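Lay summary. Proteins are chains of building blocks that fold into shapes, and those shapes determine what they do. In this project we predict the shape from the chain. Here is one chain we studied, written as its sequence of building blocks.
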Amino acid sequence: MLAALIQARKDAGITQVKLAARIGQRQTFVSKYELGERRLDVAEYIAIARAIGAEPFELMQKAEERGLR
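And here is the predicted shape, written in a compact code that computers can read:
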């Protein structure tokens, strides 16, 4: 699911800095979860997906279909 979230951010043309500002965090927060150094809880995942203009459930479905985690 993380790979799908990262790809959705990149596809939307949103930098880590822009995303961090949208969710009220620092860029290091985005970097750490994208590198796998920090886990996201469900509420964070949903907030991030919505901040990049993606539907959280659709991202989860895509990840499941592709066998991503």
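What the prediction tells us: The mean pLDDT is 93.
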